[in-house]
Amino acid sequence: MIEFGSRARRLPAPPFVVWESLTRPRRPGARPWLELLADEVEPRVLASDEPDLVVWSSLWVSRPLDQVRFDLAAVGRGGTLLRFTLLTPVEAPDQSKTGHLRRRVNYLVFGALRLSYGQ
């Protein structure tokens, strides 16, 4: 797999909560956060190891073989260091497309998901 984008930031929730959010984003009682655009599809969980790892299938119709890997680690007082990594088994997208895909995952997990925790 070729890595073509990555970013890590802290989230206020503990790893087991973040793991649950990533593996079951539409579970009953959860605040909605995974709002997809017209060119995106619901990700499938390809692999997971609670509470440290989640791997999603591609969100993008135009790049069906891509994957989004999430690595989770406990930090501070109940928080999580979350790293997403964009992976592909084929040629990496051009710089413009890579920037769009990184920004999109960044918004979903460090914007919308963070807000679903009340921050």
Could you describe the 3D structure shown?
The chain is α+β, with helices and mostly antiparallel strands and 119 residues long. It is built from two helices and five strands. It has helices at 15-23, 95-116, and strands at residues 2-11, 45-49, 53-57, 67-75, 79-88. A five-stranded antiparallel β-sheet has the order 1-5-4-3-2, with helices on one face. The chain is globular and about 40 Å long.
Question: How would you summarize this macromolecular structure in one to three sentences?
Answer:
By secondary structure, the protein is α+β, with helices and mostly antiparallel strands.
What are the key terms here?
globular, 33% strand, alpha+beta
Total E-strand runs: 5
- Strands of the widest sheet, in order across it, are 1-5-4-3-2
Structural class: alpha+beta
Poorly predicted runs: none
Helix content: 25-40%
Mean pLDDT over all positions = 95
User: How much of the residues is beta strand, in percent?
Assistant: 25-35%
Q: What is the oligomer described by this structure? A: single chain
Shape: globular
The helix count comes to: 2
Order of helices and strands: EHEEEEH
**Main beta sheet: strand number and arrangement?**
5 strands, antiparallel
Rg, rounded, reads 14 Å
End-to-end Cα distance = 34 Å
Indicate the topology.
Layout: E1 2-11, H1 15-23, E2 45-49, E3 53-57, E4 67-75, E5 79-88, H2 95-116
Antiparallel strand pairs: 1-5, 2-3, 3-4, 4-5
